[in-house]
Amino acid sequence: xxxxxxxxxxxxxxxxxxxxxxxxxxxxxxxxxxxxxxxxxxxxxxxxxxxxxxxxxxxxxxxxxxxxxxxxxxxxxxxxxxxxxxxxxxxxxxxxxxxxxxxxxxxxxxxxxxxxxxxxxxxxxxxxxxxxxxxxxxxxxxxxxxxxxxxxxxxxxxxxxxxxxxxxxxxxxxxxxxxxxxxxxxxxxxxxxxxxxxxxxxxxxxxxxxxxxxxxxxxxxxxxxxxxxxxxxxxxxxxxxxxxxxxxxxxxxxxxxxxxxxxxxxxxxxxxxxxxxxxxxxxxxxxxxxx
Length: 291
Known about the structure:
Layout: H1 8-22, H2 33-48, H3 52-62, H4 69-85, E1 88-95, E2 105-108, E3 111-112, E4 122-123, E5 127-135, E6 138-147, E7 154-160, H5 188-221, H6 228-261, E8 286-288
Parallel strand pairs: 1-7
Antiparallel strand pairs: 1-4, 2-3, 2-5, 5-6, 7-8
């Protein structure tokens, strides 16, 4: 097979496939050039103002293979940076006896935080936020908590309702909990390049098998006097297979390197702390956890 042809069309196709693998929320229809440019500009503004959740959605749009190559290259790199910087939290609430709040609702800056009861890490923009916890266990608790950029799985827990004794008291300070085990999250670029590699090998397998079959057919029917158009078609299939193989192997190699050199992060140590005083008559609540 031959090489030396431009690889950008198939590489862009493979990048699009990779992004579809890691972004289930990607657009149902490919964005237009105007939508790509708008998302490109909007993503930069959102990143500068710390609105990383919204910026990521715009970057997914301008990373699609239908966007201009220059915009796609920038958006893929920025998407990787945003994924690294985007913090996440795990929220919970219980009463003084340790009973979990089954009907917990959490509001961040007045907006309802979706899936607050899932127990999963929820992504949020960095910065100072007003948190409001509501449950039938007791009066709502409102606190101001600052989330740091790049902070992953920060635990935020509150205690709702009066103390178990029904008398005024203060919660004791508990010793710090054990340090969380180090983590090595897989970056978005590893997934992107892995998807590119798989797509490239798929292109190689498809065009390679097709070209070999067509070549065999010509050898048995018209060789050595076959039509020039038929011969050129087989050459084009060989070239496409070569491009797919090159893109696939190179992308998988880089993805493998990124996988093994990805950094280790350690989630912050969490502990229970003294909270606000309780009063059975006033129904005062306590905020728990280290903030």
